[in-house]
Amino acid sequence: MSTTTHFSTLAVHAGEEKRKPYGALTTPVVQTSTYTFADTAEILAFMQHKAEREAIRQAGGDMPVRDEYGRYSNPTQSAAERKLAALEGGDAQKTRALLFASGMAAITHTVLALLQNGDHMIMVCGGYRRTIEFAQTVLPRWGIAATLLDVDRLDQLAETIRPNTRLILAETPTNPYLRVIDLARLAETAHANGILTAIDATFATPINLRPLQWGIDLVIHSASKYLGGHNDLLAGVVVGAHTLLNPIETLRGLFGSIADPQTAYLLIRGLKTLELRVQRQNENARRVAEWLTQHPKVARVYYPGLPDHPDHEVAKRQMSGFGGVVSFEIAGGRERTSRFVDALQLPYIGPTLGGVESIVQQQALFISLNEPDRRAAGISDTLVRYALGIENVEDILADLERALAQI
Ligand SMILES: *Cc1c(COP(=O)(O)O)cnc(C)c1O
């Protein structure tokens, strides 16, 4: 697959052997906890090979080694990782991916592997609430300080950097206001200060954004969202250079948070249609965003594809699609917004996104019953997040129109 760079071809073929066991077309689910050795000689050869690999890894490279135990690797999971690395479009020789049991596992392992006691990290917010919770409640206990920097204060990034700052972690687009961060600028400031950059690009997918191409060091996704795409798996991935991923992989083996083979299979299957799904979701979201701006009962629409979005210019330059999520505010109050959500018939109500089914949520209801907390998180009572699925947009719009007419 080295001669082709077209996304859908890579999504279908990259990472998988052309010739698979039994002549099967699909990559098998290798449902095993361990791998066995024929005899002592095979163990000794394996240990020798492993020692050579370790030396190469210390020098920042990597080489394949046969599978030893399921907590370290599995052929199905390795195929998913090779596919994910190819999709992020990094240097094929230097880039690899690590699969985890969830997006949160990918984020927490990355931070804990790269930072140590005494280090400082900057998190650009809005961010996924659990990531912020991890930074605020877990990291201090490990002696790692984290500063939250609002997207609107990104011009103060240089002043926020301390001598011990090692990592900048950001999300783009953010949840739920879909703010888009200028990655080239972020990478430039970080690298001028010898700081690593990691981007949670879950909302963008590699179809709409390839952070490595803008100079970012590590890309993280919750594969539970668009990459899996069918609301039937939990997984996470980190993509970047061997040198950075090797210590993260070591930690994954120690913490035991690898994705299981069945999940890896479902992810491979989901990835094959990623481009088709995301293109449709981009298009559905754009149509819905434009339609909502015209509606008198909608007070405000947040979508990076709209010219009045604060980051529209950055998004246009940096992304090849604006994503499948639209956030908007219903004119009126909290109850009226709830009535609108309840009147919708087509989408499911729930807290995730990225699958083939449309999902809607009144953000404030999922945060806390404690109103000051919600205000602090900047979530208004009337905010609705609509994560578009792949349904026909005319049906989605008709459903929206019907629901808005009822409030
Ligand atoms: C869902 C999500 C996560 C967490 O991923 P899980 O797979 O649920 O652990 C992290 N970041 C973003 C932006 C998400 O949407």
Number of helices: 15
- What fraction, in percent, of the residue positions are helical? 25-40%
Under CATH at level 1, the class of the largest domain stands as: Alpha Beta
Number of DSSP-assigned strands = 12
Number of domains: 2
Question: Secondary-structure element order, as H and E?
Answer: HHHEHEHEHEHEHEEHHHEHEHEEHEH
Radius of gyration: 22 Å
Give the amount of beta strand, in percent: 15-25%
Which fold name corresponds to the CATH topology of the largest domain? Aspartate Aminotransferase, domain 2
Strand order of the largest sheet: 1-7-6-5-4-2-3
Class of secondary structure makeup: alpha/beta
CATH architecture of the largest domain: 3-Layer(aba) Sandwich
How confident is the prediction overall: mean pLDDT?
94
Bound molecules: pyridoxal-5'-phosphate
Outline of this structure?
39% of the residues lie in helices and 15% in strands. The chain folds into two domains: 7-34 and 69-271, Aspartate Aminotransferase, domain 2; 274-405, Alpha-Beta Complex (Aspartate Aminotransferase, domain 1). The chain has 15 helices and twelve strands.
Structural features, described:
The chain contains 15 helices and twelve strands. With about 400 residues, the protein is an alpha/beta fold. It folds into two domains: about 230 residues, Aspartate Aminotransferase, domain 2 (3-Layer(aba) Sandwich), CATH 3.40.640; about 130 residues, Aspartate Aminotransferase, domain 1, CATH 3.90.1150. α7 links the parallel β4 and β5. Pyridoxal-5'-phosphate binds next to α4.
